[in-house]
Design goal:
single chain, 333 residues, alpha/beta
């Protein structure tokens, strides 16, 4: 399903809800994930400048999360153009996506839609590395995972200074000390931002604190999912879509899934096939509106198959697929 088809669906939402629609999708395709980040802001600025001041803006959101500072910036940017702000969630708005939702006057969730804890995962230039294919990638470090490690030591009632020092040294051997410092700063920041966003539509201070405590720590795991019933019980402004509106949101999500191949793990060997080299173009994010703007986060380059000699066994060379990436970023589609 192409943008032209989605554009008609966006226009249907605009007519039904007397709003202006923007969609924001970050890929959760295995091995081709993307996150909410500062590089998306300019596309939102261009779309919002075209829309201009308006009574209401609806954000169709699908994401696993990303940078909390970028999420905070997007909420404030959208609210500077619209008197009302609502988030429409066909399937999920996790982590920083949930933070965006906290700033909304209404959160429309399908029966399968979920929110999640807002403990941020930090990807840092000094963060731990893991192999992805034949390359190394920086692994996100969960703020609450670090807190859980330290809480475990506390739960065991360890008081010996030498043992506590060894625990901290072991942690810093796995996660760079500067990353740990950024993690603890992020933990305080996320609570501060969530509080500011919630107080726009939740006046009860005890309720605000309870929501933040649950989303930041009490839910237990970064992978915990919060359906619309639980979100409503928390005190969030949840709305259930009508049967017709549910159908529109479901069609939109299917379109994103099909075009970005979200259900197909990305495998360079499959992309390359039997060829020795092949160019590729991965669509890993979308920012769109109903007026003709469609931006994609693209990774482009060439996959090259080569044989690498094995010094220990010269007769058996190893086959390696290298990714010669030539572009990665947002483009107008």
């Amino acid at each position: 399903m192409s943008y032209l088809v989605r554009k008609r669906l966006y226009k249907q939402i605009e007519a039904q809800r007397n709003t202006k629609v923007i969609s924001f999708v970050t890929s959760d395709r295995q091995n081709a994930e993307t996150q909410i980040a500062q590089d998306c802001v300019q596309m939102f600025v261009d779309i919002l400048d075209n829309i201009g001041p308006t009574p209401k803006i609806s954000l169709v959101l699908h994401t696993n999360g990303g940078q909390t500072s970028a999420a905070w910036r997007l909420v404030n940017l959208i609210k500077s153009f619209g008197d009302q702000f609502e988030v429409l969630i066909p399937l999920k708005a996790m982590s920083a996506g949930t933070l965006i939702s906290l700033g909304a006057d209404h959160i429309v969730m399908t029966k399968q839609a979920v929110l999640g804890p807002i403990d941020p995962s930090l990807t840092h230039a000094l963060g731990p590395q893991i192999p992805v294919g034949n390359q190394l990638a920086r692994m996100p470090v969960s703020v609450e995972a670090v807190r859980g490690y330290l809480d475990a030591a506390n739960a065991m009632k360890i008081t010996d200074a030498q043992t506590l020092g060894a625990i901290l040294i072991e942690l810093s051997n796995k996660v760079h000390p500067l990353v740990l410092g950024e993690i603890f700063r992020s933990r305080e920041q996320i609570r501060f931002l969530a509080d500011k966003l919630l107080r726009h539509h939740v006046q009860d201070s005890d309720k605000v604190k309870a929501i933040i405590d649950f989303l930041c720590a009490d839910s237990g795991s970064h992978d915990y999912t919060i359906n619309r019933r639980e979100a409503e019980l928390l005190g969030l402004p949840i709305e259930k879509p009508s049967t017709q509106f549910y159908g529109i949101l479901k069609k939109l999500h299917k379109s994103y899934t099909d075009e970005m191949k979200l259900l197909e793990p990305y495998n360079p060997a499959i992309e390359l096939g039997p060829a020795s080299a092949a160019t590729y173009r991965l669509l890993r994010g979308l920012i769109e509106d109903a007026s003709g703007s469609s931006y994609g986060f693209l990774s482009e380059g060439t996959l090259v198959r080569s044989l690498v000699p094995n010094p220990a066994d010269p007769a058996n060379a190893s086959e390696v697929i290298s990714d010669q990436r030539t572009f990665e970023g947002w483009k107008k589609l």
